[in-house]
C-alpha cells in the first residue's frame, strides 16, 4: 500500500515509538465489531449545507489550514469559538469559523478574495474565546492558495479533481493525481520529513490525504453528483496529533520513557526530529496493520476511510496530552 513506502525502515528499527503487535491484534478484534461507516461530512455549523460541488471548494480551502489548534505556550489553550450557543474546539472550530464567515457574507471560498486577504480580516474570521495559533502562517497559506487556484485551476478546487481524473495517486508524469497536485502546488499541503536514521525522505501528506478522504465521503453520499475517487482504497491514514493519542491509549503504541516524559510535561517535540517523525510514521504503520487485522476478521472488508474516522472519533473522548510540535503540516 502506498503510504507504507519508506516507513518500514522505522518500523523495523524504532528508537522512540514502538508497536505492540499483541495489543494491536487484541484491539482489532474489538474494533472489527463496530459499524465502521464512512462519514458523509454533512455536519451542521461545521461543514456547510451547500451543494456538493461548492463543498469541494470548502474542503480544499479549509483543509489547507487544518493544523495545530493547541497553543504551544502554557496554559496550552485550544482554539475555541462560541457560536450559535455552542462551543467548538480545534478542527471543529476551524470549520465553524469558515461557516460563520460565509453566513456573514465574507467570500472566504473565493480565490480572488483569499489572495488579497490581510491579517485583520483573518483575525476577524478566526475570532474566538481562545486564539488560533500560527495565524501568520495561516495567512501566508491562504494567500498562496488563492493565487495558485486562479493561475492553475480557474479558482476552483473541483477543477483540480477533474484534472487528476478523480485519482488520488499519480500513474505517470503526465497523469498527476490529487494528492501530488495538492502537495506540489499548494504551500499549505506540503508535508514531508527527512529521517536521519534511515536517510530517507518520508512523505506524510496528512492534509492532502485528509482532503481526498473527506471528498470521497461526501461523494459517496452525493447521489452521483460528485464523481468517486477511483483509487480511494489506496488512501492511507492522515498522521496527526489525535491518532497517535488514541493508539497509545489503546496500548498499540508504546513510547520510550524520554519521549513519554516530554509529552507529559508539555515539552515541544521539534519538527523533523527523530522523535516526531517516529510518532507519525509508526502511527501510519500501526493504522495500516490494524486495518489488515480487522479485514482478517470481518466479512465486509473496510478501507482507511472507515477506520480512520472510527479511531479519530474514539480519540475525542481522551483527555491525555498529545505531543506538541509547531508545524503547519498537521
Automatic annotation (TrEMBL):
Signal peptide per UniProt: none
The protein's name: Queuosine 5'-phosphate N-glycosylase/hydrolase
Reaction it catalyzes: queuosine 5'-phosphate + H2O = queuine + D-ribose 5-phosphate
Keyword Hydrolase: yes
InterPro entries, sorted: Q_salvage (IPR019438)
Organism this protein belongs to: Candidatus Azambacteria bacterium RIFCSPLOWO2_01_FULL_46_26
GO-annotated molecular function: hydrolase activity
Highest classification ranks of the organism: Bacteria, Candidatus Azamiibacteriota
Stated family: Belongs to the QNG1 protein family.
PANTHER family: QUEUOSINE 5'-PHOSPHATE N-GLYCOSYLASE_HYDROLASE, QUEUOSINE 5'-PHOSPHATE N-GLYCOSYLASE_HYDROLASE-RELATED
